[in-house]
Design brief:
By secondary structure, the chain is of the alpha+beta class. It has one domain. It is built from 4 helices and 10 strands; from the N terminus they run ααββββαββββαββ. The strands form 3 sheets. Strands 1-2-3-4-5 form a 5-stranded antiparallel β-sheet. A hairpin with a 2-residue loop joins strand 1 and strand 2.
Length: about 280
């Protein structure tokens, strides 16, 4: 018995295939650490570049939106004043003053009859103090000005007199008592004939035209009434205002590629009286 017990005690346990085998632990080498650090640095650099690009794009888009918003506010202002303007047979509510130069004609000034209440002479020409002028700032052509001259009570010239209206505009620009508001300061300007001009244009179309209205040889029925809207005593005149401007959104690119065009239009109708012809 003792010999059997002793024999069993000498038996050593054998390792089976299913028994787990412990492998010796090995630390990272210096080369592996350097490779890992390089990969991490590349990932961080790529992430930082992506974040910086996103931030720059956000800032640029925000700035561009702010600049364009100033232009849209100007268009909204002009359209509202035109809709509220007073008009009669002698003045259709608004007029464009074009300035000539060797390179062409630039219709960059708009005049709106907006008395802010009943006009002093509703059947006559407007008073200068009842007019609102819009034009690029001569000193800083990237600005659009809204100008009034509330101290001038003399009547405006005849609607068809281009020379007289150009003289009025020149005197308004030099009037030290004029009141002005700047609506936009990012208007694109271009050097033309030795000076810079703001890219702002106005256009007015109406039916019947002022020439047709003044042509007494033309019969009442032959006037260009829109959609034939007239009677023996009255007729409807249709007036359309078009506005175009270019906003400079990229300060580094002063060409047309760095600007955004904004377009707007407004229209109104009012009654013409045959007795006033």
């Amino acid at each position: 018995m003792r010999s059997g017990i002793h024999a069993r005690s000498q038996i050593q346990p054998t390792r089976t295939a299913s028994s787990p085998r412990r492998l010796p632990r090995r630390a990272l080498t210096l080369l592996e650490i350097l490779i890992a650090m390089g990969i991490a640095a590349m990932i961080m650099a790529a992430t930082a570049t992506l974040v910086k690009t996103s931030q720059d794009a956000f800032v640029a888009n925000t700035s561009q939106a702010r600049i364009l918003q100033s232009g849209r506010l100007f268009l909204t202002r002009v359209r509202r004043l035109f809709a509220e303007s007073f008009a009669n047979e002698l003045f259709p509510g608004a007029r464009v003053i074009a300035q000539a130069s060797p390179s062409g004609v630039f219709p960059d000034c708009l005049v709106i009859w907006h008395p802010g209440g009943p006009p002093e002479s509703p059947d006559s020409l407007p008073r200068l103090k009842e007019l609102i002028f819009f034009y690029p700032n001569p000193r800083r052509p990237n600005e659009i000005l809204e100008v009034t001259v509330p101290h001038l009570g003399n009547p405006a010239p005849a609607y068809e007199d281009d020379t007289a209206w150009q003289s009025v505009l020149a005197s308004v620009k030099l009037d030290p008592l004029r009141k002005s508001i700047t609506w936009c300061d990012q208007l694109r300007s271009v050097a033309i004939d030795g000076s810079r001009r703001g890219m702002l244009r106005f256009a007015i179309r109406m039916r019947p035209t002022s020439q047709e209205w003044l042509d007494t040889a033309a019969s009442w029925e032959s006037l260009a009434w829109p959609q034939g809207m007239f009677s023996p005593q009255t007729g409807i005149r249709y007036v359309r205002l078009g506005i175009e401007l270019q906003i400079q959104t990229d300060e580094k690119d002063t060409s047309a590629n760095g600007a955004v065009p904004l377009l707007a239009s407004a229209s109104r109708k009012y009654v013409l009286r045959a007795e006033r012809r």
